[in-house]
TrEMBL record:
Coiled-coil region(s): none
Transmembrane feature ranges: 251-269
Keywords annotated in UniProt: Membrane, Transmembrane, Transmembrane helix
UniProt name for this protein: Putative Rmd1/YagE family protein
Highest taxon of the lineage: Bacteria
Amino acid sequence: MTDTISSTGAPMQNTRLTARALLLGDRLDVAGLERSDVLSTTPLAFRAGQDGFVALFRYGVAVLVGLTPLEEDEIIRGLRQRIQGEFSRHEEETAIIEISPDRDDQIPPGGPIYIKQLSTERLIVIADALSKSATLARDEREATAAFELVEPSVEHLAQKGRRPRDRRKILKHVGRALLVRQRMSGRVAVEEKPDVLWDRPDLERLYARLEDEYELKERATALHRKLEVLGDTAQALTDIIDTERSLRLELIIVLLILFEIFITFYQMFTGASGH
């Protein structure tokens, strides 16, 4: 594909662009968002502003490239009705893109993302990596918060050999932890590569470098393990509560049986004394 051009039809002149991935909410409804300047449908990408580019991902992320703050605000306002479960705080991942015809596509440590040519496909590849990084950042924070909720109960169990007395509070924390796990499961498949690579396998190396730079695979693996531990911990706490409840019921049944035996013997004794 040819170089990306601005909304005015002229080639983009900037050699340095700022790319921002904003996690706006749980989902972003892009159905029916028809535009005459669509560059891609998966993700939905189009030109915006004077020299800008926007990519929208269904898992709640908007990636804005080369836009002014006013243009960014305008885009976000236009998307507000399409955001499902909007977050009060928008997770953000920012990168600098530098167009350098004399360099290969590369990302030096701590430096900008160098690209040989500013094309729609390259921007989509970069947007994909940034959107996944922003999503992982929020999921990591939520998973950590869920761990902090159940940790006191686990520590009490380890130190005292029994669960804390406030069963309702434990169940509330377990419920929140399971809710976090459910919300994160299947939100975004970090391991999946962007569809554009099917048509542009020459950009595989750029995507691999972005994966390494943002540690996407490592973070996704660590998050999945944390979610598994979180689920196992929640299950263990609920099992303990269920076991205690079962033991309590069994004790009540035993006491009722003993009471019935006592009544039977008492009636037999009083009946024998009457004769």
